[in-house]
Amino acid sequence: MRFWRYAAQRLAFLPLQLFIVSVIVFFLVRLLPGDPSYLLAGPFATVERVEEVRTRLGLNQPLHVQYVRYVLSIARGELGTSWVTSRPVLADIAQRLPATMELVLLAVFFCVVIGIPLGVLTAVRKRGIADRLVFGYGLLAGALPDFWFALIVIFVFFYKLGWFPGPVGQLDLTVSMPRHVTGMYALDALLTADWPALRSAVTHLVLPVATLTAIYMPLVMKNTRSTMEDMLGSDFVTYARAAGLSRLMQLRYALRNSLPSVVTIVGILFWFLLGGAVLVETVFAWGGLGQYAVQSVVNSDYAPLQAFVLLTAVFTSVVFLLVDLAYFFLDPRIRA
Amino acid sequence: MRSWATGSATTSTLPIGNSVDALLEVKDLHVDYLRDAGPVRVLNGVDLTVYPGESLGVVGESGVGKTVLVRAILGLLQPPWRVTRGQVLYEGDELLRQSEKELRTIRGRGIALTTHEPRKHLNPVSTIGAQIANVVRAHATVGHAKARERVLELLGRVGFPDPEARLTAYPHELSGGMCQRVIIAMALAHSPKLLMADEPTAGLDVTISLQVLDLMRGLVRDANSSLLLVSRDLGVVAHYCQRVAVMYQGRIVESAGVQTFFERATHPYSRRLLRAATAARDEGRGATTSAGPRVAAAVVGCAYTPRCPVRVERCATEPPALEPVAAGHLVRCFLGAEIAAGRVTV
Amino acid sequence: MTIPTAHFWRFARTQPGFLFGLVVVMVTVFLALLGPWIAPYRPEEALPGQAVLPPNVDHWMGTDISGMDIFSRVIAAPRIDLTIALISTVVAFVGGVVLGVVSGFFAGARGLWALVSNAIMRGADIFQAFPLFIFALALVGFRGPSIQNVIVALAFLNVPFFLRVTRGAVLHVRERPFVDAARCVGGSGLRIAFVHVMPNALTPALANLSPTIGFSILLTSALSFVGAGVPIPTPEWGSMIAIGAPNMMTGQWWTALFPGLALGVTILGYALVGDGLRDYLDPTHRQ
């Protein structure tokens, strides 16, 4: 089967990529001026404690030995210990990952569901009122800082209108957590039919997801619009028109040919949203991975930060891999 | 190499004059290309008539607006292109004023099109079987099996040795010549009354070109259709058409029966074209002409004035009309009659 | 590169967005030079007993939680924001263009330089696996929050971008006849790449200078917002928004609104200047 051969080729590159990513993260920390032992031990550590950390981590050993130890520990799933939470980083991450994924996945969903139709619409009705409005909005959204926009949204919809809860995390304090299934509260509440928790979780999701969607949706929309515009003006759509094919059929040709590009932009959207989520989580006190990373930076808690960077790079690498695999089905030209 | 004037056209009887109703009449067609700096006139009053069952060749250098003409006839031009004046009459109906919906019933059924660069005009992510089936279904309500049958038949007619095996091929898996055959299959799916072939052989090997042209001519004859063949190649037009129309800078400057044209071409530009073609043939090359200057702005007088060896004063200031010098022989030149009579030599 | 002024203004007059962007750029540069001096209050001075005042005659944009005058801080902020963005963008521009010229000029060649060219591209690919803001956060995080570290991080982050646009242009330019001509007279590869090819391949990178400055301002303020950039109380839009954030939830909207507006308008302006310059330098892009 040709797909598996293609997938295998593409997958073969992934370990190499991850290897290099791990090297980058490793050297980022060690080649920079200063001694990470201080960072690792935390700001209040004594000299003896720092020395102890240095020995324990083997920071007095040669770089390549350190690298091997570092990779082996990652392979064992040991990402170090956060001195702020005093827990293994892996446990901290496992606990916070679902919250972030819930946010990012929902934002991707809405960006796609709103952005693609708008992009198609404005490509078809060029220079109409909708096109102008949407163009202005796209320009604006590219310039607005997401973290500021989040605050404005909170001011309007929480303080002024009171429609949605304030930035206090994923659930009301009075609501008990739904039983753990996936870790995503809204989904878990739905799965366990825990209606009070579901209601609370959904109302808390609205503002952060709306913020991310409002700021990042234009990315999908603008790309869809320009791709669709190219495709609608392409020779093959012109020929379809010349052959008497219906408008609907012409649109189908254009849409089908725009798909690969749209899938790519959705991959890139993940890349953007991971960064955006860090900021928006901070504003909404979301308690996800992004907020965890920011706290690590502020507290010089180095192990979680390293793990977080590694994790996002792995995540985006996998997303881009999936995009490549999707191409196989969407564009027959690369199957050759 | 075959001689120009001994093509298929020599023995034909030309339906010229008003005895037969025209199938397609293009009158005074003006098309602009809109730029920031202002419009550029690309078609500057094209007049053209195609009669039922005949084959007309439109010749001209690249960039004189042949493709634009073909697309304007089918109502395919979109901004920044704009038709500013003129008429396109198909069986007496004005196409330029018809809605997209009305035009759809004519496109592919009344008038069909084949293009240059055929691969670029096929949907790259769809199989050719599906694409031809879409064209078949565009003007006929047929079921899946019926459509498939028709696709196989069309593929067979355009010379695919094993149509069944090619149904699931994608355009990128086919050669340029094969893609052109697919386009021809689509164009002929509904036995159109007029086939417009826009540079059907550009970019194809010489042998493949001839195969494609022979195929096209055969199919057009079988269906009793008219052919409007647009080409840079006088030789191709001479061999495959009954009448020639020469286009220069957005206007038709001469039109005549093929034999008349090769014996008594009158417009100075046509003569130059002929000489260049003959020279090229004698040297064994296929190219006909060098590229002329691009259309820059609306020309007041005759566009050929700067290059014309016999120009007179009024050439630069007023445009000559397309006027007969003999029956069925029209020339757009003030000196047309003198040249035709041999009183002026070009 | 010389810009024929008359022609330039004739173009600019027809482009309202571009004009708006130019005004924004001029205002920010002016404020970066003079902002702290023309501010009605000292930007880092906490006025006693005047905390969280709404906008009024004395404080046009109100005061923040520690009694600092927001208007003074908003117009003083471009000094630090623009400095960081400008330095990091210029460094990234130089680095990106050099790497882009090398990787583009030697792409598909043989020997050592082809390896270099490939290595540069793979490096850029892999660096771009890290989401931009997270990478910036990590760089600053590992080195500790400080202005220098923000500059280093942003410079580093913007290199792949300039690299890619320059490489794209080089791939076109190197096919042009004058490059062959230079080869024929026996120029060395590197010399041809930098003397003949590079000057003709700068347009996309130049047109992207302005938007990148805007984007760097956004990243700087985002880093400052989470406490990983410019430290409080230095006047900086992002850190001002951070100071105002708790007030937004209790209704004191002016604390975060004004610095955010200044930030948004600035980023928009720099982006529009980039669009305008691109259209001006490459008229085929125009709609």
Summarize this structure briefly.
With 336 residues, chain A is mainly α. Chain A has helices at residues 2-30, 36-41, 47-57, 63-75, 89-124, 129-143, 146-160, 185-191, 195-232, 235-242, 247-284, 289-298, 302-330.
Number of helices of chain C: 13
| Alpha carbon gap, first and last residue of chain A | 13 Å
Main beta sheet of chain A: none
Relative helix content of chain A: over 70%
Which percent band covers the strand fraction of chain C?
under 5%
Distance between the termini of chain C: 25 Å
Distinct helical segment count of chain A: 13
Q: How helical, in percent, are the residues of chain C? A: over 70%
Largest sheet of chain C: none
Overall shape of chain A = globular
| Series of secondary-structure elements of chain C, N-terminal to C-terminal | HHHHHHHHHHHHH
The best one-word shape of chain C is: elongated
Kindly describe this structure.
The complex is a heterotrimer of chains A (336), B (346) and C (287). With 336 residues, chain A is an all-alpha fold. In chain A, 76% of the residues lie in helices and 0% in strands. Chain A has helices spanning 2-30, 36-41, 47-57, 63-75, 89-124, 129-143, 146-160, 185-191, 195-232, 235-242, 247-284, 289-298, 302-330. In chain A, helix 5 packs parallel to helix 13 and helix 12 runs antiparallel to helix 13 (302-330). Chain A is globular, with a radius of gyration of 24 Å. Chain B is α/β, with parallel strands linked by helices and 346 residues long. Chain B folds into two domains: 24-110 and 193-341, 3-Layer(aba) Sandwich (Rossmann fold), CATH 3.40.50; 115-189. Helices cover 31% and strands 22% of the residues of chain B. The model of chain B is unreliable at 1-18 and 284-296 (pLDDT under 50). Helices cover 70% and strands 0% of the residues of chain C. The chains are: A mainly alpha (336), B alpha/beta (346), C mainly alpha (287). Chains in contact: A-B, A-C.
